[in-house]
Amino acid sequence: MSDFSDCTVCVFDAYGTLFDVHSAVGRYREQLAEKADALSLTWRTKQLEYTWLRSLMKAYTPFDQVTRDALDYAFDLHDVTRPDLKKSLMNAYLQLDAYPEVTGVLQQLKAAGIRCAILTNGSPDMIDAAVHSAGLHDYIECSLSVDTIGVFKPDPRVYQLAVDALGVKTRQVSFQSSNAWDAAGAAHFGFNVAWINRFGQRPERLPATPHAELLDLSALPDLIVRS
Predict the structure, then answer these.
(1) Superfamily of the domain at 9-20+96-225
(2) Annotation says 13 is catalytic
(3) How many CB atoms lie within 10 A of CB 134?
(4) Catalytic residue among 3, 13, 69, 138
């Protein structure tokens, strides 16, 4: 059991944790009408499924292509025939909205001397665009992408990227993800893990469990700084 007392670094998952993945479709809700929510859910679900399957198949391709393939599937499933809208949605994914509390939380952590980084499945150009669009670049020390090793989360090699790049020990890392499977993967690797359970999900039945469960990131500074 961890108390986060050794943590000097906060490493964040990006999509779903810092950035609202459904905000892309949200910008085109009027054009998609009643299909918007279902299409957005399908897009996200297939995006994740394709990362897992490609890792198992040893058929890596960058996350932007995975995202495009998942969107193609979602358009096909929901009978949307708008090539122009598909292009707009892919562009919107580069400018996802950050969740409301994110900027303030990162400011608090930086003021407390906690280093902050991102560890993501996202391609470098995708995550850099999202970070700058949301105005988070002053608080993020670095964004680490799986693109450098060619395998997706929750492969342990992904979490090792953060250890190597930041020059820390596993016990010094507090890892935050809203994805329960990612939280489990990071905990199994050895990180201190805060599961950001934004949507009231049930816990996964996997080999490791997160050390803390938060409704959003607002309580993270107290968890890290006061441990």
Answers:
(1) HAD superfamily/HAD-like (3.40.50.1000)
(2) yes
(3) 18
(4) 13
